[in-house]
Amino acid sequence: MSETELTRKYLELIREFIGGEMTAPEFERQYLDEFKSDRGNFPSGDAFDPYHQLFVAVDAYCSDPELRDEYDIDETELRETAAETKAQMEQRLETITGEAEDIH
């Protein structure tokens, strides 16, 4: 899978989450599944940073406030990180394709 295809796949997943088409627990499960299955496909160096940044946030997400500790994040923080990651991925996609991504 090319970096362009990989980036577009993750952007679609992030957009569905940010757009409210998927819950935080659904996003958590799907992102972790995708991340694990795409191990050998990620770009190297700085291009990997957005994927890893979001992985760390997803891993720190805890849906149950009663179980959440100082190292966990809630849904709002996860959405904020997803939005930041989306912007970084869109910028990277524009760099590698030479075209602005159709943002929806």
Automatic annotation (TrEMBL):
Pfam families: Colicin_immun. InterPro entries: Colicin_D_immunity_dom, Colicin_D_sf. It comes from Halovivax asiaticus JCM 14624. This is Colicin D immunity protein domain-containing protein. Residues 9-85 form the Colicin D immunity protein domain. GO terms for biological process: bacteriocin immunity. One of its GO terms (molecular function) is toxic substance binding.
